[in-house]
Amino acid sequence: MSKIVVSTSSFDFDHNPAIQRLRAQGFTVTGNPHHRRLTEEEIIELLGADTIALLAGVEPLTQRVLTTAKALKVIARCGTGMDSVDLQAAQQRNIRVSNTPEAPAQAVAELTMGLMLDSLRQIHHTDRSVRAGEWPRTQGRLLAARTVGIVGLGQIGKRVAKLCQAFGAKVVAHDPHLQQNPEDVELVSLNSLLEQADIVTLHLPYSSDVHHLIDATAIARMQPGTIFINAARGGLVDEAALCTALNSGHIEAAALDSFEQEPYQGPLRECKQAILTSHIGSLARETRQRMEIEAAENLWQDMVAAGLIHE
User: Is 203 tagged catalytic?
Assistant: First the structure.
C-alpha cells in the first residue's frame, strides 16, 4: 500500500479523525523523524518514490522535490503560507494543493498584539532587570495613543485591526488587493502608511514581488521611534537594514516571529531592542489542533477527488 507523509515538526496523530480513517483504509502514515523543519534533501528522502499524499509543514517543496516524488498526487499544507510550495511545478504534475487559511489567523493576531504591547511597555526588559536585582521605573507608551499601520488586510490583518481598535488605537492599512475600505480602517498607500504610523506590522504573504518590501529605503520613510513587527514571512524584511536602524535608534523596537533563514542565527540576536520568537505565531494549542484537523480533512477530500480512495 502506498504511503502518506506528515512532515510538520509536530502532529497529534492519535486525535485526528481523518488520519484514523486513512489508517483504517490500510495506508501507512509516516511522520517527521527530525521534529523540525526539513531541508530539501530530507523531504526528498522522506517522500521517496511511493508517497502519494503529503500533509506539509514549511519545508521547501521545490520543483526538484516534486519531480523526485513521482507518486505524489496531493499536498495539504498545515498553515496559511504557500510560498514554500512551487505551485507551478505542482500544477504541471497535476498535484492537488490546499491550505488552512483561516485556522491560524486568531493565534497570529494575538501573538502580534503580545509583541506590540511588550514593545510599548518594555515588559521583557523590565523582567530581565528585576531578575538582575534592579528595580527599574521604565516609562512605556500607550497603544491607545498610537497609529498602527497594517500592511496586508487579510484574515490576520483584519483581526489585528479589530484588536488594536479595541485598545483605542487609530488604524491605517495598505492592501493593494482591497478596493473598498473596511469599516473604521483607512486604506492608504504604502509610503503614506510608513510615514504616519507609530507601529508598522506586516500581515501579507511572501512572493518574489514583495521580497525585502521593508528595506533600507522603506525604513528611512518611517518616523524616528517607530516600532516594527513582522509575524508574517521573513523574506519580506531586509534584516540587515533593520538591524542597522535598530542600532542607530531610528527604529525604537522591533519584534519578529519569522526570518529569512530559520532557525535564525543572524545579527538581530545582538540587538537589545529586538524581540525574537521562533515562528510560533500559529502555535496556540486550540489553533494547532484546528489546523491539523482541517489539513487532514483537506488531504482526505483531495485524495477522494484524485481517485486515490473511495468513500
Answer: no
